[in-house]
Amino acid sequence: MLLGNEEETEGLIDMKKQRKNKRQKKTHPEQDHFLMRIKQGERMYKFYYFRPMAGRHYHFEYRILTKEKINGTLEMVSYNFKIENGEPQKSSLTRVPNISKEELEQIVQNVIKKTNTDSDEFEELDLSEFSSIDEQIEFLKGQDRIDTMYIT
Q: Is the pTM of this model over 0.90?
């Protein structure tokens, strides 16, 4: 037979066990402000922006961001970006941890071809000409293309 207090105590013990065994949730990639982490010795490579005329009202863009790893291969992140009710929204996030420069170029050309992108709807920002990540960051700051609160 359980008394009132014993029942409450049993419930508290169970709750403690749940908290103790509960794994911390990983943040969903679309909620991760750090879409791409740049490690020591790595540099940003190229950023691509597709801005279809039909989505300009929402500031819609399809973005492809790449970095060059120390071994010369690239990492790519792509996602949809738009501003809705004054808030930036990211969706359809895709990560490719290893991709060659040739494969990246094929992907970009395929996106241009499949979406019938005109030259005024596409922008390529080539950061490979800079020799260091610091130079790249300074350039992006000058272009108002980087939010420095995310640089650690």
A: no
* Spatial CA neighbour of 65 closest among 113, 118, 121, 126: 126
**Six token digits for residue 67:** 């970095």
- List helix spans (H) across 22-60: none
State which H helix or E strand residue 93 sits in.
Answer: strand 87-99
pLDDT tens per residue across all 152 residues of the chain:
333 333 433 444 333 334 444 444 444 544 555 578 889 999 999 999 999 888 777 789 999 999 999 999 999 999 999 888 888 888 999 999 999 999 999 999 999 998 888 989 999 999 999 999 999 999 998 888 776 665 65
CA distance 111 to 109: 5
